[in-house]
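Continuing the batch. This is chain 6 of the set; chains 1 through 5 are on the previous pages. Same settings as before, nothing changed between runs. Recording input and output for traceability.
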Amino acid sequence: HAAGFDPQDLAAAGVSPVAGPADLEAGAAAVRRVRVAPEVTAYIVDIARATRQSPSLALGVSPRGAAALQATSRVWAWLNGRSFVTPDDVKALTQATLAHRIALRPEAELEGVHVSAVLDSALASVPVPR
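Output for chain 6:
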């Protein structure tokens, strides 16, 4: 289970009348079937690489962070009724998925640089696949 998540915890919390373990497993299986084209995967990798090249960051997005962005983009596509991930899905989830995975350099913090601006800059620097 991802990040120590156990569907049984939901049952214990009294949520299972809404979504039981079988429902959660079915949803997870459906999300795994959402396709990510090679060019969209490359787009995600390029965004992560752009953060690692940012002079404002002490720590950029790791390969695990890129994998997390692909995973959240898959869920977003599925929630929007699609069986494939688009670059817009990736853009929509970049801030929420990656903001806590990067660290500003102390001098960038002193200059008032924000993590969201660094991520926006990384996104703007990477060509969007067509």
